[in-house]
Amino acid sequence: MRHLASAIAALALSSSLAAQGPLRVPVTVDTLPNGLTLIIHRDPSVPVVTTNVWYHVGSGDEKVGRTGFAHLFEHLMFMGSKNAPYPQFDRLLEAAGANNNGSTNPDRTNYYESGPASALPLMLWLEADRLGWMLETMDAPKVDLQRDVVKNERRQSYENQPYGLAFEHLVAAIYPKGHPYSWSTIGSMADLSAASLEDVKDFFRTYYTPNNASIVVAGAVNVDSVRALARQMFGEIPRGPAIERPRPAPFTLRDTTIVLEDRVQLPRVYLAWHAVPEFSADDAALDVAAYILAGARNSRLTQALVFQRELATNASAFNSSKRLDGDFQVVATARPGIALDSLTRVIDAELRRLASEPPTARELEQAKNSIEASFLNGLEFVDAKADRLNAYYYATGTPDYFQQDLDRYRRVTAADVSRVVRQYLLTGRVTLSVVPQGRTNLAATPRVTQ
To answer: Of which family is this protein a member (predicted)?
Structure first.
């Protein structure tokens, strides 16, 4: 029923959008003399405001032997700056009724503040102070403290988490050694231990600069006032050096089989293929294929593995497209006593079927409706719109890319879905089995290719 409701909502919203014309999220875009990009979206419906800063650096900008720096900096940015020493950043925002946080992925590091519109000057001042005047307060004790915090986070999320090391092994097998996406965002223990204070400062000087950042201010704001505030707060921070981005070479993924023993009760199989970067020609069709395979209770793998044959407790599929490259994954957890070969045989059969027989009109419509409903629901809150504006700006150069993004899914045909499955998901892949300790007999065996 939930999926039916989503489909109905999407159809209603689509009809409304069609009647109103193209979907627009109006913005003004300015570039300060120091290179900082300022994107302003006025939404006076509720008296709240969000500031959303993207530094265009993620784990994909790191170098071999120096991984984990982008995520480490996400933590260090909350350790105080010249005019807002620790823990004033959080205390001042909390006193104003605002909240804040940050996140890191392979392509960017993001920081945001959300709260009443009256808190905007404080939000901008705090962001400017840690961009322009944090480095002089950076010292070894701060780095050591946050290094230990990140190491503990790694232990909790990777080493001591069931199936926690699967992703790290998977990306290292999908992408060639040295590829920007061949290591996890959190970095390795060895690299975190080796990071010196000067290494950290060099990373900041290179990437935490106005010309490597974009800031979205969205909500109940006056555009001219925001422009004036931004110039007042950020204007005297100097431009940084030009940045050379990584340029990964093309590669072909060959069949690779990996077996991990872990403290788990049920075996799980991960299948991964090399796919495409975000917003490239086949990106949307791969998203639709992922939904048709495992996006709902009536999706093909969910039905075949979980309900009909009762071989698995769950199945998922997702297209992980990123700025420089992408991969596609299918993940399924077996029921007790079921060997993973039983699952991979069913998955392979369903992939071959989808490659040779396009999805039905009903399957395609459900997939598009669900994706569109999720897309439109994401526009409900101003903080989500702000983050999407920043994402579009970095990926396409156009912050208001909402209609173009929506259109690419609407254009996907049933033939497109079959074609991308044939082109990307019947080729070389990584097969990773995570099995209970001592039960390697449950692991998936290398497939026999024709």
So the answer is: Belongs to the peptidase M16 family.
pTM of the model: 0.94
Which residue range(s) make up the domain with 360? 256-442
Spatial distance between the Cα atoms of 249 and 241, rounded to a whole number of angstroms:
25
Say which DSSP state 179 is in. Answer: -
State whether 61 and 149 are in the same domain. Answer: yes
With 60 as the cut, is the pLDDT of residue 1 above it?
no
**Residue 5 above 50 pLDDT?**
no
Calculate the dihedral angle through the C-alpha atoms of 135, 52, 291, 168, rounding to the nearest 10 degrees.
10
Helix, strand, or coil (residue 62): coil
Residues, the chain:
450
Mean pLDDT over all residues of the chain?
Answer: 94
* 104 contacts 74 by C-beta, under 8 angstroms: yes
Structural domains in the chain (count): 2
Contact criterion met (CB below 8 Å) for 205 and 73: no
Per-residue pLDDT for 7 more than 60? no
Identify the CATH number of the domain in which residue 82 sits: 3.30.830.10
Q: pLDDT of 59-103, one tens digit each?
A: 999 999 999 999 999 999 999 999 999 999 999 999 999 999 999
DSSP letter for each residue of 71-138: HHHHHHTTSB-SSSBTTHHHHHHHHTT-EEEEEE-SS-EEEEEEEEGGGHHHHHHHHHHHHHSSGGG-
372 HSE (CA, 13 A, CB side): 27
The DSSP line for 265-280 is: SS-EEEEEEE---TTS
Give yes or no for a contact between 277 and 299, defined as CB atoms under 8 angstroms apart.
no
The per-residue DSSP string of 406-437 comes to HHHHHT--HHHHHHHHHHHSSS-EEEEEEEET
Evaluate the omega torsion of the peptide bond into residue 336 and state whether it is cis, within 30 degrees of 0.
no
pLDDT tens digits for range 184-224:
999 999 999 998 999 999 999 999 999 999 999 999 999 99
Looking at the fold, whether 159 and 31 belong to one and the same domain comes out as yes
End-of-domain residue from the set 234, 266, 292: 234
Q: Does 221 map to a domain?
A: yes
- Nearest CA among 299, 292, 328 for reference residue 314: 299
